[in-house]
Specification:
Elements: H1 34-54, E1 64-68, E2 76-78, E3 94-96, E4 102-104, H2 111-123, E5 129-132, H3 136-143, H4 165-169
Antiparallel strand pairs: 1-2, 1-5, 2-3, 3-4
């Protein structure tokens, strides 16, 4: 027998070992009011922006991350156009409704972010966060018209920035 994964070897994992709980397990989450849950999501969202920047997923104006609002579930929080991921704060975030109108916050809405995320949030109401970051390798490959490996798709019909939901359907 040459491998540790041979089918006739006994399992090395005990079946009575308790499952370890992580900070993101729902059953460990405390019960929150809507206001507390909104702040929790905003804080995590702002933190994710800064974390993405730290790991190189912030190139100029490219990239956007959203989180669904816990009360107005057809609204989502998004980064304003022009604010670098590494400098994102809770107070910078915009609450946008399904028509692309800013309900809370100041600053321009990235129309590509709105068009993409509005469609995702509508199609998948079970999802809360939606990250679409861009790193330098992705941007470089996009400039020469090639996909960056097998980790994403390449749109051969690309005609520029997405500016409306209609473009997602074409």
């Amino acid at each position: 027998m040459s491998t540790l994964l041979a089918a006739d070897q006994p399992s090395l994992v005990r079946h009575d070992t308790p499952v370890r709980k992580f900070w993101f397990d729902e059953e460990l989450e405390p019960q929150r009011t809507l206001a507390e849950e909104r702040l929790h999501r905003q804080q995590r969202l702002a933190g994710v922006f800064r974390l993405f920047a730290q790991y190189g997923f912030a190139q100029g104006l490219a990239g956007h991350i959203t989180a669904r609002d816990p009360e107005s579930t057809d609204h989502f929080w998004v980064n304003p156009l022009g604010r670098h991921f590494g400098r994102m704060r809770v107070s910078d975030l915009l609450l946008v409704n399904r028509h692309g109108e800013i309900v809370v916050g100041d600053g321009p809405v990235n129309q590509a972010a709105f068009a993409i995320h509005a469609a995702i949030h509508e199609a998948r109401p079970d999802l809360t966060p939606q990250p679409i970051p861009h790193d330098m390798a992705d941007l470089t490959h996009q400039q020469v018209g090639r996909a960056n490996g097998a980790r994403h798709a390449f749109d051969s019909m690309y005609e520029g920035l997405i500016e409306s939901e209609r473009e997602l359907l074409d």
